[in-house]
Amino acid sequence: MTEAAVRTHALLKRFGPQVAVAGVDLVVPAGSFAGLVGPNGAGKTTTLSMITGLLRPDGGAAEVAGYNVWADPVQVKARIGVLPEGLRLFERLSGRELLIYNGRLRGLPRAEVQRRAEELLHVMGLSDAADKLVVDYSTGMRKKIGLAAALLHNPAVLFLDEPFEGVDPVSANTLTEVLRRYTASGSTVVFSSHVMDLVERLCDWVSVMSGGHIVAQGTLDDVRAGRTLNQAFLDLVGGPSGTDGDGLSWLGAPQ
Hints:
By secondary structure, the chain is α/β, with parallel strands linked by helices. It is built from 9 helices and 11 strands. The chain has a single domain (4-237), classed as Rossmann fold (3-Layer(aba) Sandwich), CATH 3.40.50.300. It has helices at residues 44-51, 73-79, 95-105, 110-123, 139-151, 169-184, 196-202, 220-224, 229-237, and strands at 4-15, 18-24, 27-29, 33-37, 59-64, 67-68, 80-83, 157-161, 188-193, 205-210, 213-219.
């Protein structure tokens, strides 16, 4: 395996008596398109929140690009881009203003920010909506402007939490092409999802979470082991084999 872009050791998070993340050892090779998959409630979002510095762990450690997330937060935040679940944006700014604000906040020169913003707006298909307020953007447009903002400072590692949820096929294709171009340059994408077909199509590295643990991780082919990723996932997390033949006898019955 090449150098790790992301590495955690015994990462732990509790919410009261509930253990959400139970000692996770996650490894993501540099330059990979990595999927973090698991059923709802597996701990994916909590894990990503701790790795990106949004949530303080109760134990363990996390490193991004060789820097400890909590010991060197400025170094880490300079090297990551984040598109979180439940994306929050400054909705009274236009798309162009949002990008310029993010770039200036990152300390980039104004001329460089403006150049990058125009290129990103064009690639994302948002040039015609650049001066519309973000509050008037559709779900797909909001995802695209959020991704543009996360990419503006050219991060080494990009973290995406369910980036394709609620996105139409045209916008999803745009996001996919941008992300593939990004990883082709040697940068790293880590994204969480519970859509196995999407992960199988995009990723070359997969980590599977269940019950707050990593139950498998490695290359896509290693994790699949000759199966579809969906079947491997069900085998790993212990999905039900079917519905109880004695239950739901009323379903579909004549009224």
